[in-house]
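Predicting structure from sequence has reshaped protein science. With that in mind, we have picked out one protein's residues alongside their backbone shape tokens:
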Amino acid sequence: MVCHGSMPPGKRVGARVHWGMRGRDAPSLVAPFGKPADTRFKLLARAAFGARLLSLAVASIGTGRRHQIRLHAAHLGHAVAADSKYSCLATFSEDQSWCRSTFLHRYRLTFWAPSQQLHDESEAHQCRLPLPPPMRESLRLLSPLSQSSSRELSKWISGDQFDLRSWSDY
């Protein structure tokens, strides 16, 4: 995901998520009466688009609440780029000049399924999917703020799914 501002290198958010009965299109809320939610973020790169500071980060969720990653990123003050629900209208409008869709992409999904073996162990199954071309084009428009950020952005721009590491490898 690309989010606004300079995200800290590692951050965990446990804010409760509530989505209530306001309709499918309404944003979720951080609220004490919401359901427990757990999101971890890791910073990969910092970049800029003009004067706007941006962060490329990965997220891992321990729960699956509606809009959880988007809401928790905004709760930290780092709304996802081009997110019409969780950023202000002016920011969303500016983002449209370089990114046409919410910059959040599930690049890797791991799930555990029962093994075909006779014992009770589970097997990990993984799916990896590189960024779609429009998102890679958006990344090309950003100016990395360091050599390490440049290297990391290049990996995501390349579209090579085998450069998409697991959470623990970042």
Remarks:
- Residues 15 and 30 are 6 Å apart (CA to CA).
- Residues 2-163 form a domain with the Pseudouridine synthase fold (CATH 3.30.2350.10).
- Helices lie at 68-75, 89-95, 133-140, 147-158.
- The beta strands are 2-4, 10-13, 17-18, 29-30, 39-49, 52-61, 108-114, 122-128, 143-144.
